[in-house]
């Protein structure tokens, strides 16, 4: 795991803003309608937290990066929305209470080092969900990591920053490495270079099913690519809707 460091400064600029609407719509379709209290894991800079709060939910945002949370808190204050933001590692949710819903989007589960950590996250979520609560998360499909990502390259140029994002196949099955180089303009007009490496790994659908069952989840439904349809061989993003 990493803290995103300077990446927090340009994170919003390189994210596809339309994804937040899709995550919001998918969540609201699958949340029971009579509950309000939501924990958003890996909330980043708070855009999704704000969407959930504006939809009427009582939101707690949780993230490893304090830099991200500082931006998130400022965003919520500017919007006049009451959201609690907590810094921590989702391998240990002891600093938060219990919730009706827990979400973990933007393939954040794929940042866990191995399936043991993935299982530990599922167990933590189960412990902090109320009875009848719903846990929704998304991950990269094996098709995405094995066929789509290797050789992927993304370049972004803006007035005050530029970046290069290259993705390569990693050694472990269904894993990739994202190498990011970006240049951020300082107050004096000069550009400073920053480099980051992000490692992601996913697993077969059966592995996720087993880990969720071991954590205690008995009812799990799997969808793909923001739609209420079962995954296909070429689905890029898997969605899991788990009920406690």
UniProtKB/TrEMBL annotation:
InterPro entries: Methyltransf_25 (IPR041698), SAM-dependent_MTases_sf (IPR029063). This is Class I SAM-dependent DNA methyltransferase. One of its GO terms (biological process) is methylation. SUPFAM superfamilies: S-adenosyl-L-methionine-dependent methyltransferases (SSF53335). Pfam families: Methyltransf_25. Gene3D superfamilies: S-adenosyl-L-methionine-dependent methyltransferases, Vaccinia Virus protein VP39. The keyword Calcium does not apply. Residues 39-133 form the Methyltransferase domain. Keywords: Methyltransferase, Transferase. Coiled coil: none annotated. GO terms for molecular function: methyltransferase activity.
